[in-house]
Amino acid sequence: MRKFVVNLCCLLTFLLLLVLKVYAADSMNIDWSRPNFVSSTFPISNYDQSKPESAFGAVYARNISVRVIGSNVVAVNAYKIQTVQADPGAGPFRDVSQTHAVDFDRNGYSDIVAVTYGGMLVVKRNTMPNIGTLDFQDVTSYVIGNSSYSYIAGDGTMVVDDFNNDGKLDLFLYNAKYQAAFINDVITPKPTIQDKGKNIAITRINKDSKFLTNWTVSAMASYDFDKDGYKDIIYADMSGRIWFWKNDPTRGNSRFFDTSKITLLFSDPDIGTTASNGGAVLDIGDLNGDGVPDIVAGNTDKRGIFIYYGELVNNEIKYNPTKKVAIVNLDGDLGTEASVDITIPNSKSPKYLPSFGPTIVKVTDLDRDGKPDIFVGTDAWRQGKNFGGSIYLFKGTSRDTTGKPKFTSLELVKGSYSSENKPPYDFDAGAIGDLDNDGIPDFVAADGNHSGNFYKVITKTVQQYVTEPGILLSDYLTNLVNFKLPDGTITRGIPRSVLQYYFVYAIEVEVSFTNDGSGKFEIRYSKGAIKDPTIIDPKNFPLMLDPNKIDPNTKEWLPMDPKPVPFNGSFKARVVLSTPSPDPQILIVLYPDNQNTAPHLKSVVYRIWTKPATVEIKGFRWLKSTW
């Protein structure tokens, strides 16, 4: 028996050496001019304004901002933050029920896509680059209707994203009459009934009487939940149920109209109401940096704001409402995840307010420090006090040992009673975007159904760079490259249902910079998923190889040196992995020369070479897909 075990070990060792020899031979024979998959050239133009790093295919950033310099969208080290300031503005949001920030004219100043209570779609241009002060001017408007529906009301909730992967923004609206509208290419005017018939689909969707948002709130967020390359919708109905609303690309403009593809994720009465009116509010983001989306939610009729951390269970995203944690408790006092900083005058608990009825919840990283921040705007009517218009910022200030953030509660706008004649005194719509092109997200909240006025929360910066290294962490490369589906459609990301055939074994990253700043950069890699990017020290990850830096003895490529910026042309870094991986990630690290100048990353392209997975991962269940 012992002799058999020894022989078996020798055989396994021989096979392992043979496999390693095969991979070594492969690395010498890679045709670097013929990758299996290539990404689009980043940055993309229609990125999520609340997560600006997504413009460069990144899922995490620290000390990095995204701005427009000249005609280029660039990633650059962040400016130093001076203060966060809330100022009122007058007039341009009358009748507006929903807003979304997008830089449609690509000048670095976020504009607004708005839906009105009367059923109009309005595109509002940010006037700051023209007149020097923040205001919004209508540039496009059309009725949300078609040959079957003359119009539908614009209350309820909406979400904006590129849902059909054509590079243009689309809009999905679900109103308080169970009516759903999908608008293809929402920015482009639609002056004729033919234009509307081609681009606007409307239907009635009613899973049950409580599958509804019977108020005006932010109750939807977009996320590719099933990893098929198409953005889906996460929706909170008024009863406190959270739904996965699948995007079915085979149905064109009716992609969200199949009720059989709306799946319950979980239910929690603490974010629901039994009243005839009201609505739950939510936003999503990876708050603890584990690569799984988390949900922040509340309800207009209750004071609580809760975090539901997502977990991967058999490769499916699950939420357990019994494990939720509170930023604000149901009684309005701060929960376990938030606290008051007594050294900050406006750090307060909202418990002292007459009411605290959230209608807007938005997650972003306000100061680009790698920790999430959460804006909350409130309503004046749902809690019987006629008091509202409060804006609170729950600023991420630290993390516990598991990576979960802790927040400091900051009151930016106290709010007021309706009788005080201090409009706006409640908020219907809110959006995150870079309103002043300093690379730092700002927040705008509007009182659409009364005064039409708004508050702009501007993050003031000084024109000096944070001199600590800036880090951009890419999404898994298999989520970034373009993939051709069987029907010929090109989608971003290799679907999880076929990923086992396309594990990554070689990578090339090509970057270019503008001549606007100076400093150095590095490109590093992680063979597998980084579980907690919040504790990243770049030096713990290997440098990619420089094809122009060759060992004179072995003739092998050597790790790249920190490269100075600016330089002419582009730079390519490469690496061959020892074994194929489904989820490698890239770190681009930017080092400013000093506080007055920093590298301006202009473009990134990712290329990968793939092979089928050669091992069975115990307990790993591949997602099924019908394409």
TrEMBL record:
Q: State the Gene Ontology BP annotations.
A: cell adhesion
Q: PANTHER family from the xrefs?
A: MAM DOMAIN-CONTAINING PROTEIN, SENSOR KINASE-RELATED
Task: Give any Pfam family that matches.
Answer: FG-GAP
By its UniProt entry, which PROSITE patterns does this protein fall under?
FG_GAP (PS51470)
Q: Which residues form the signal peptide?
A: 1-24
Put simply, this protein is called: FG-GAP repeat protein
Transmembrane region(s): none
Entries under InterPro entries matching the protein: FG-GAP, Int_alpha_beta-p, Integrin_alpha, Integrin_alpha_N
Q: Which GO terms describe its cellular component?
A: integrin complex
Q: Does the keyword Transport apply?
A: no
The keyword NAD appears for this protein: no
State the UniProt keywords alphabetically: Glycoprotein, Repeat, Signal
Q: Which Gene3D superfamilies match?
A: Integrin alpha, N-terminal (2.130.10.130)
